[in-house]
Design a protein that fits this description.
- The structure is a homodimer of 191-residue chains.
- By secondary structure, the first copy, chain A, is α/β, with parallel strands linked by helices.
- Helices cover 30% and strands 23% of the residues of chain A.
- In chain A, β2 and β3 form a beta hairpin.
- Chain A is globular, with a radius of gyration of 16 Å.
- The termini of chain A are far apart.
- At the A-B interface, α2, β5 and α3 of A face α2, β5 and α3 of B.
- β5 of chain A pairs antiparallel with β5 of chain B, so a sheet runs across the interface.
Amino acid sequence: MVGAIVLAAGEGRRFGGNKLIVTVDGKPVITRVLRALNGIDRVIIVGAYAEELLHYLRNEVVIYNPDYREGISTSIRLGLRFFQDYDAVLIVLGDMPLITRETINKIINAYREGCTAVIPTHKGLRGNPVLIHRLLFNELMRLKGDVGARELLRDRADVCYVECGPEVIMDIDTLDDLARIERIIKEYSEQ
Amino acid sequence: MVGAIVLAAGEGRRFGGNKLIVTVDGKPVITRVLRALNGIDRVIIVGAYAEELLHYLRNEVVIYNPDYREGISTSIRLGLRFFQDYDAVLIVLGDMPLITRETINKIINAYREGCTAVIPTHKGLRGNPVLIHRLLFNELMRLKGDVGARELLRDRADVCYVECGPEVIMDIDTLDDLARIERIIKEYSEQ
């Protein structure tokens, strides 16, 4: 069984506010991400904008991380405690509004014996969400500070890759990123 | 290792509002309860007044239970997922402002081999918080609706008891309960 840990605790400093409730193609970013996880067990880890986000997450299990300022590893750890008995977790960024259920399935299905993790790529660039097998849960629990799962997986020979579309590398760090994502959606819808 | 699941998700219908932030002897009820858990790993399960409670819980791991209306078993289950690897959990009611660290220690220390749970009593009346050994975690996970740990333990021969003060039977259901608790505090402080 796969559980999804949705990271939504950040301050969005480069964005200058709560980027997860900004609408993209008529829907809040976080809602789009959750739609891609339809039917998958998940917890959403919140921090900086906890109260505001809760309004959008009324039907979700949400964990407030009091240590969110200490970085992403603290959020991953909380989510992992929740999924200790699962076979694998997906570490999902809350700010990837182009991610789809199809791509999520592709990543899950790319898992095969011998992989301890699956990383989606686009044209060779490593993306997200990353799938981590339970064999690595202990190591994941030991991450410190603002270090995510990708750092843990760097240089491991037992990591598998699956080539996907641009949705796996397009997160929202800045207002420019948001504009770029809206352009891409427009282009696709005009095709 | 013992983890505490603090139940704070209820609507407080008989009280007519969020009883957990009412002050008792100058401190919010939920703050008093958490003070009694000082140094113990805990998660606070919220539901009905999630946003309001979050203001008081800035340094705590808080889990929002989207199914809080379905009853207490749904909150216990979420907390238990978090403490799967612990030896035991304490199921703590968020509305017991007279509970002290001393009484919590007494309950934890009353655990001995052969007990699957420890229930505090006052003059023979069963109270809270109840300590549940991991041997019962699976059964606890299977509770449904508004059924708490005490129902699970009814008629079990392997439950241990520890006699405590009135703090283990005094929760706040109504405004009258609140007035009674304030009277007790006044009496104690005048002694």
